[in-house]
Amino acid sequence: MYKVGDKIVYPMHGAGVVERIENxxxxxxxxxxxxxxxxxxxxxxxxxxxxxxxxGVRNVIDRNDFExxxxxxxxxxxxxxxxxxxxxRANMDKLRTGDxxxxxxxxxxxxxxxxxxxxxxxEKKLLANxxxxxxxEMVLAADIAQDEADRILDSAISL
Length: 159
What we know:
It is a single chain. The protein is an alpha+beta fold. The protein is 51% helix and 21% strand. It has helices spanning 52-55, 63-74, 84-97, 100-116, 121-142, 146-157; strands spanning 7-10, 14-26, 29-37, 44-48, 58-59. A five-stranded antiparallel sheet has the order 4-3-2-1-5. It is globular, with a radius of gyration of 16 Å.
């Protein structure tokens, strides 16, 4: 069980800090919820406490893993399907894992692909979402500002 102040990742939504735990009745069902504040957004996310394992909620990476992610962003792009629809599905599957390395790979590959050719509208949205997920975790893992995380990410990918 997480406590107030813990830094956690909610796959497909990003990383945040547990602001409070509150009991609510939603659709006739009473449960406890983590109220998560995501950095850089005014967004609050409510996660049912009894569903965190099924959803894949995990702790934010530590500083050492942060450095590993930055190194992963510098690596050459991995092979992706040339068909945008297959590429979209493969990247979406990676995002759903909640694994920070998979998310970083999606951001790296799509960012570099976007430089070479235009991404589909769906892929642009997927890239924006993946980047948000990655940046929010970088902010909390390294205790840095969002613009600094963006700068580190952009610098690493451009190599």
